[in-house]
Amino acid sequence: MSDIKPRDAAAVAAAYEAEAADVHGDVSVDELALSAELTGADASATASDDVAAYALRLGDDALILSQRLGWWISRAPELEEDMALGNIALDLLGHARSLLHYAGTASGRSEDDLAYWRDEHEFRCAWLFEQPNGDFAHTIARGLIAATWMQELYTALSQSTDATLAAIAAKAVKEVAYHRDHAVQWTLRLAGGTDESRRRMLVALADLWPYTDELFRDDALHDRLEGVAPRPSSLRAGFDEVWDAVLAEAGIVESDFVHPRIGQSSGGGRHGNHSTHLGPMLAEMQVLARRHPGATW
Amino acid sequence: MSTPGDVAGEGWPLYEVFVRANRGLSHVHVGSLHAPDDDMALRNARDLYTRRNEGVSVWVVRSSAITTSDPDQKGAFFESPAGKNYRHAKYYEKSAEVPHL
């Protein structure tokens, strides 16, 4: 206050007020700066039909896996694991919202329109994500394949020439890195735990592994999206490197879980042909929105 | 003397969690959790206690590794400073530039 002239009553009062406001600065939760719920370079960006089709695939992968993981809430073996799986489900739901919002801009549909008002044949998720939770080992094996693939995918997609996809991927890659770590930690512990935990881990890997190849199949959409979307086949080398390292650390060799007579699934999820597991899950996920259209709480 | 978390029959051991909110601040005890081992304890701490950008650093330690003072001995432990005002540095001016003294 040294720059205030003596007897300048108004200035003194103003300075006191300013100081008082500073000292007693109110803290209000309303003023908490929340980050944007939807990620994207520009909320008004509109996707082309091809970009929307691509975003729909990835958005459905995240949405369906999120819904699956949500089942564990209140059912996980320990409270701490309940939180871990719930956190992962919420991360994935965030990815799904951003991707479905962007996909919907091409056809004037909202993220909720896409999540709740499409039927089974209109979903574009790969079969891996719709597989049942099974036991804890199945959930971990599914999560390990999913997160290892997503890590490669989002790392590549963050370099996309499409600014919105690049921004979504850049945020997601940090989150899926944690999802992968979670799955790796549990894979190591189940594989190296008791005879029973190892047996279950191997059964789970045997059951989920056939849904891996579908994630790496190129099709005509990727030809049209050169530079926008990485070719799925280009992600395989990075995936295999991580996968092999995890198995080596877990003391698992491929012949422990890959059965010579069980090949890879033909998995037509990208074209709307789904396993028998998706329909019942969608019925549960969509019933509220369809029974009470426009309901809010 | 009892040790926190030293309860027979619990599946996973108990850990105490310490979170540092910012550079320059200390790690502060925020709570406890169960975990199968040290590595998972750190991850569980991240999931349970840093959900709203609370921290830049997390410590976990097995509760059984902590030795506590004995509540029955708190007179001998904590009431001795009474009347020893000369132990308080009350005759110094606090420097305005040091917010977290």
Outline the secondary-structure elements.
The complex is a heterodimer of chains A (297) and B (101).
Chain A (H helix, E strand, L loop, with lengths): L8 H15 L25 H22 L8 H26 L6 H6 L10 H4 L5 H22 L5 H29 L3 H14 L11 H5 L11 H15 L27 H14 L6
Chain B lengths: L13 E7 L6 E8 L3 H12 L7 E6 L11 H5 L23
Antiparallel strand pairs in B: 1-2, 1-3
Q: Can you characterise this structure?
A:
The complex is a heterodimer of chains A (297) and B (101). With 297 residues, chain A is mostly helical. Chain A contains eleven helices and no strands. Mean pLDDT of chain A is 90; it is low at 1-6. By secondary structure, chain B is α+β, with helices and mostly antiparallel strands. Chain B has one domain (14-87): Ubiquitin-like (UB roll) (Roll). Helix content of chain B is 17%, strand content 21%. In chain B, strands 2-1-3 form a three-stranded antiparallel β-sheet, covered by helices on one side. In chain B, a hairpin with a 6-residue loop joins strand 1 and strand 2. At the A-B interface, helix 3 and helix 7 of A face helix 1 of B. Chain B: Keywords: Oxidoreductase. Chain B: InterPro entries: PaaB, PaaB_sf. Chain B: It is an enzyme of class 1 (oxidoreductase). Chain B: Its EC number is 1.14.13.149.
**CATH homologous superfamily identity of chain B:** Phenylacetic acid degradation B
Question: Biggest interface in this structure?
Answer: A-B, 11 and 14 residues
Oligomer: heterodimer
Strand content of chain B is 15-25%
Element string of chain A (H = helix, E = strand): HHHHHHHHHHH
- How is the main sheet of chain A built? none
The tally of structural domains of chain B comes to: 1
Overall spatial form of chain A? globular
The CATH architecture category of chain A equals: Up-down Bundle
Could you say which structural class the secondary elements and strand pairing of chain A correspond to? Answer: mainly alpha
At the fourth level of CATH, the homologous superfamily of chain A is: Ferritin, core subunit, four-helix bundle
Order of helices and strands of chain B: EEHEH
Mean pLDDT rating of chain A: 90
CATH C-level category of chain A: Mainly Alpha
- The CATH class name of chain B reads Alpha Beta
Task: Give the low-pLDDT segments of chain A.
Answer: 1-6
The portion of residues assigned to helices of chain B is: 10-25%
Number of strands of chain A: 0
EC number (chain B): 1.14.13.149
Organism (chain B): Agrococcus sediminis
Enzyme class (chain B): oxidoreductase
Keywords (chain B): Oxidoreductase
